[in-house]
Specification:
By secondary structure, this protein is mainly alpha-helical. The protein contains two helices and no strands.
Length: 69
Amino acid sequence: MNSNRVKGTTDELVGVAKQKAGGLTGSAKLQVEGVAQQVKGKLENAWGQSKDAVRKSNEEAAAGSKPVE
């Protein structure tokens, strides 16, 4: 897991909390901020997953290209 995935997950959780707090207090602004932060977190998390997948593919390719003795 890389820092993008950690940050993305954090943003998602904070976004959900803001959205719920906005709903409880009647603050549409806070709800919108929460939704925006949640979307930002999902994108950051997806970017991190992509980076992890590329890294794993590169490691597997490197492991497969070593000569067998």
